[in-house]
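G., the chain you wanted modeled:
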Amino acid sequence: MARTRPIYVPALRLKQGEYRGLQRLAPDVADKIVPRLVLPPPKERDPEKHRLLTKDEIVHETGRRIADHWKMRDAFLDVRFLFQEFGETECAEWLPKMFDVARKADAQPIPVLSVADALGPRAAAFRLALATEGATKAAIRVESGEIDRELGGRLVAAVFALGVSPEECAVLADFSDADFSSAPAVAGIAQAALEDLQGIGRWHHVVFQGTNFPDVNPAEEDGNTVIPRNEWLAWKEAIKLDGTSPEHLVFGDYGADCAKFEFKKASGGIPIRHYRYTTPDSWLVVRGSAKGKAEAVMRGVCERILRSGKFAGRRFSSADDYIFKTAKGWGGPGNGSTWREINTTHHITRVVRDIGGIKGMSFAETTFNDPADQLSFL
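Predicted structure as tokens:
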């Protein structure tokens, strides 16, 4: 598959809902993104096998799942949460093997590493894991607090240690720890950071990544709330996005989620019945009741999305069609993983269509059919 420069990089947890949400994307939307997939640590219960995976299983299942749900497409693979339990001294063995297994399964992972990784004991392992095909060999994650006068020298040293050129690297400017309550304030900081990074090297592209989505579900039970997407508003202001904006300055966020990676040993709690519906400038968070049957509760949630005036229409994406059918009682209600999947597909489609529309790109709309026997779903 031909590789194109992405217009969007969402940071996603490699959870069932996220990788199924990627698989759900329309091909013309999928073509425009490179997801950053963050692997959960071994202590997290696997949603498919319903138990903890062994180290060897994680190495092999990671490659299989990426290939099954994102075949022959570039993906940034972030393994930083594996080192503590997989081992630092053994990383020269398990880390390259993970990437090798993934590539043999027809996945196209690109390693994500920090400057410290490239300049420390992990460097040898990452050198063995570099992408061998395509324009981008590695992605270097730089936290916003690292962007200072010393960063230039450290980045140059990191690239040299990896044995690649800046042109073969993406830089992920990670603003996960930034306060996004004021979009104009973040825009100024982001613009300066992007200019600094571009002044250091001719990177293949620089990704601005952050989010204003709160760490805790902001909607009350049976309530709605609106959260402004200030990371999107700040990025547009920072680079004055228009049809001729530089292709190497790429927007990124954390999908329809917060930037806090919290992995738990077990997921025994009941998932919150809600959708996080992305609009052109906000998230509409619609939450149902914890009581009652899921069918009735989620039908009500979806009906509220349709009545909100923010619904993009069932032809916007397969996720929107799912919400529409759930509202009509023709399908659903799904479960926590399904709702995460629908959030992911709709959010990515919204972002890609909005950026693409500004850049003069067009996207096909799909016609979804009503069930042949609607009564069977009621």
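The chain has a mean pLDDT of 90.

Shout if anything looks off.
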